[in-house]
Amino acid sequence: MIEVNGLTKRYGDVLAVNDLTFTVRPGHVTGFLGPNGAGKSTTLRMVLGLNRPTAGTSTVDGRPFAHRQAGLHHVGALLDAGDVHPGHSAAAHLSALARGNGLPRRRVREVLEEVGLAGVARRRVGGFSLGMRQRLGIATALLGDPPVLLFDEPVNGLDPEGVRWVRGLFRGLAAEGRTVLVSSHLMSEMENTADRLVVIGRGELIADETVAEFAARGTRADVAVRTPDPASLAAVLTRAGASVRADGGDSLMVTGLTAARIGELAFEHRILLRELAPRTASLEEAFMELTADRADYLAGDRR
Ligand SMILES: Nc1ncnc2c1ncn2[C@@H]1O[C@H](COP(=O)(O)OP(=O)(O)OP(=O)(O)O)[C@@H](O)[C@H]1O
Question: Which segments constitute the ABC transporter domain (predicted)?
């Protein structure tokens, strides 16, 4: 369990993280989402004791992480996949960490196999692709078999097969009862991976809830309708209190009435329907809506 309480970080004039409070529970994959510059990395670094908070506290299983001696036994983290000496091999890098943390040598072989790097274990990391470096970073996080795992943008550089693999890995780790926190600036990456979300914008908490609850926030009550007689149907629905947008063809977009009520009204007025489809906003749309006014970097005139 990770508990963040009133966590705040100021860099000069920049309030990178502002009074953030949330809990990350074991047994779930929790997505940590926010636009670029929202403060995700800064928060993760404070949880790991790498950055000192301006105010507030964070604890891992009840104690500040910095006070724990067990290191990799207790928390595994992928922060920056480039943070490995390019002249070292993957095996040498992991072996040094295993030695430093009192871990058995066999863990090196096990995690290299788990992330699919066993075949390149002796190659210099300098020649690794970004995806291979991410896999090595994930191997590092897994090395101590820790109950709490933090991954900062782990999907960067992975190919589609790698993305699928990493999703399965995270879900498997959570199913074993571990606490898994995964940051991303893309909702699409979290949609099929996380079951809970912590969403931040400009350093502030926007949402801390299940993916289903988050999706419900962005749900629109639109119904798409197709009919050979859009003008008559639009008139009937407008009289019934709906707001109707026509596209000039045979489609209408209706807000303010349920699909069932639209079907009844069309039946009563003998208007043929060719399609009647309630539409819900995607998670991506919910995320964009909620973070639009808290994104630091927006193209065009949306700021
Ligand atoms: N060492 C630092 N000195 C000054 N400002 C910093 C420092 N680190 C981060 N910031 C600022 O704090 C804010 C949050 O940055 P952070 O890297 O935590 O965001 P992020 O959500 O991880 O973004 P991204 O998705 O782009 O990595 C940004 O405005 C950033 O410029």
Answer: 2-227
